[in-house]
């Protein structure tokens, strides 16, 4: 470019320049949206918050007034206080860790808090029982001599298993490879490969002789893992009392092996696995209670979401103590929140699907009046509940009684 061209007067952007710039901005926004979506950040991925604008067409617009939707009890007269007295926060003890670990303690000491020798002895006995059961009933398939694992041996077995989760290899036998490229000396120096695979084959947490079969009245798809789940839940509660704000959500434990518990969720980062509901403290994500989803074969009383929330509160031993629980739109409903408020002394807050019964439909529809541009919002209250419709990229609906 010549000096004349570079030093000339700027005459402004042409219409083409502006159009191109706008297109580049839109393209950049779309790339960012895709990246955030892939990482689970941004719009709620559970359903109704991602509905397209085309689906809004044809829905009747309901104008907002103080009476709410046809006198359904929801209103915007906030000079009237309807909630009653808030719950006092009365946890079962001092919140936080139940014991103080010294600075000299190591990772293994913290692990021992939750596993402990007593539980490991239980694991050894159940594994030995299952091994003897197989040797007795299928001797031709179990010819390798068996000896009950010792306590140090089962700890070594678990340690090697944890290490496999950190140092990933295509197959178990490669951890005992002597190839200079693949060798991992700690495995062969700790335990032979045959002994490791033998313990792994017989590893058990429950008594196979008492296991109820499918079709029997007391059949439980969680029977094989229930002892370890119950043990961990008990330890979670003993070692820590959560602060007031807790959250309940689902987690996918990646697994592609054989089990009736395996779920397929294509929208999740790990599509195959075992679904687990978890109650955790909001401040530090400490897990207080886990509830393994047994699948649709087990029917719940009421909706699944409501049952999960109540089971988690009761299982974590925090019901009736004035806790605040935060949920996403899979769980949230006015009926659940009222039940928690009245019967569990628990307040709640969370996003809600507009299809839930009992919502103020004048503001919780796909296209509420006066909730148009980003930042617009409308409030309604009814008894102990507050409903909020807030415009972000989409309309976000929230039900709350924690404030």
TrEMBL record:
What Pfam families does the record point to? DDE_Tnp_1_7
Acidic residues: compositionally biased ranges: 1-14, 41-63
**Disordered, as annotated region:** 1-22, 37-71
Ranges for domain PiggyBac transposable element-derived protein: 110-397
Q: Which InterPro entries does this chain map to?
A: PGBD
Domain of life per record: Eukaryota
Name it: PiggyBac transposable element-derived protein domain-containing protein
Q: Which species is listed as the source?
A: Mytilus edulis
